[in-house]
Amino acid sequence: MKVGDRIRVKASVVVYHHPEHRNEPFDIKGMEGELRSVIRDWNGRPISANYPFLVQFEGKFRSHLHDTEIELVAESDPVVAMAAQASAAL
Asked: Which string of b and e fits 5-23 if b means at least 16 CB within 10 Å?
């Protein structure tokens, strides 16, 4: 996976920081977002982050995830790809 790819949460991941469900458990399984960064180094030194994938979902919601929790979304349809890019820009 690379930065800019469209991904989907494939595992059950419960978060407590979702803007619409603040301070209550919210499962993000099935949500789709854009991979914003992959954390591999810090100040030029290699690190092994526990949750290296930063995913931007709709609005202000983003979350750090593990590679076993996410999957790449196949965007074979150009209309779907354009819609995904437009929603990520918001």
From this structure: ebbbbeeebebeebeeeee
CB distance 58 to 28 below 8 Å: no
In a domain, 1, yes or no: no
Instruction: Give dist(CA 48, CA 16) in Å, integer.
Output: 24
20: DSSP letter: G
What is the pLDDT confidence band of residue 61, given thresholds at 50, 70 and 90?
very high
Whole-structure pTM value: 0.75
| 36: in domain | yes
Nearest-angstrom CA–CA distance, 14 and 43: 30
